[in-house]
Amino acid sequence: MRFLEEVVVDEFLPTYRSLLAAALRERGLTQQAVADLLGVSQSAVSKYAKGEVGTRAEIETDERVTAHVAEVADGLADGTLSRVGALAEAEALVRDLEAPGDVLADIHTEQMPELAGVDVDFRGTGEGALREREHVLADLRRGVKLLERTSGFATLIPAVGSNLVECLPDAETPEDVAGVPGRIFDVMGRTTVPADPEFGVSAHVATVLLAARDAGSDARAAINVAYSADLIDALADAGYEPVEFPAESESADVRTVVRDALVDAPEARALYQTGGYGVEPIVYVLGDDAPSVAAAVRAFC
């Protein structure tokens, strides 16, 4: 019997730490500084550098892993990412790689052939409150980076700005929802993100997401983009089942208005209002997490 967690410890961690140690050294950190960040001994870092630690090629060459290592190394090196944040980023990556049919699941099956053809997801679900919050922030950072790299996304940013948000599983108020402080803006055709994601910084988009959840939606993330009839048609064709709500009531009680609009269609993943006096028309796209919402919007750029 071999547990998936053993695959993570024996196969993923040595490869991941080796890659991250090398990336941090490339950014000018000393071996001791790298050891302190990774929580290992200096001699272990030396072994990573000398190639004395066995690694798995399929993990080492996975594009998601290499991109993730570069981003985490940048954040740790310049101090914009804490060790807890880095841990959350790594755990989010592991969750992805553990999915059935993905690289860690395949290694698990390789080492325990009886799993071949068995449709079971062995990923754990236990989370502490701190880690859950860090996972949400990690998701948002990934989603925001995807938007920044998406050519054409700036054209979807409304005059009031966009915000990408994700909530905790038991979210009740905007304080339980993380977003981008100051919103995301189009600055001369470039998607501009003013600050790293935080909890409690989005009022409007967070409230729309919470209203959708009040109506029975299982969405954990949302983004607002500029309205167009063509976008609504494209969303409908893609299966998002757009639902309209009245703009004239937005400023009064958006949570009630959105909840009422969705009460008969909680599975809808798109909401919109076509504007009114002093109110810009807006589309809200909902999804399971911030990266999937960003990827969905990217498809319409």
UniProtKB/TrEMBL annotation:
<keyword id="KW-0418">Kinase</keyword>
<dbReference type="InterPro" id="IPR001387">
    <property type="entry name" value="Cro/C1-type_HTH"/>
</dbReference>
<keyword id="KW-0808">Transferase</keyword>
<feature type="domain" description="HTH cro/C1-type">
    <location>
        <begin position="20"/>
        <end position="48"/>
    </location>
</feature>
<dbReference type="Pfam" id="PF01381">
    <property type="entry name" value="HTH_3"/>
</dbReference>
<protein>
    <submittedName>
        <fullName>Putative fused transcriptional regulator/phosphomethylpyrimidine kinase/putative transcriptional regulator</fullName>
    </submittedName>
</protein>
<dbReference type="GO" id="GO:0003677">
    <property type="term" value="F:DNA binding"/>
</dbReference>
<dbReference type="Pfam" id="PF10120">
    <property type="entry name" value="ThiN"/>
</dbReference>
<dbReference type="InterPro" id="IPR019293">
    <property type="entry name" value="ThiN"/>
</dbReference>
<dbReference type="InterPro" id="IPR010982">
    <property type="entry name" value="Lambda_DNA-bd_dom_sf"/>
</dbReference>
<dbReference type="InterPro" id="IPR036409">
    <property type="entry name" value="Aldolase_II/adducin_N_sf"/>
</dbReference>
<dbReference type="GO" id="GO:0016301">
    <property type="term" value="F:kinase activity"/>
</dbReference>
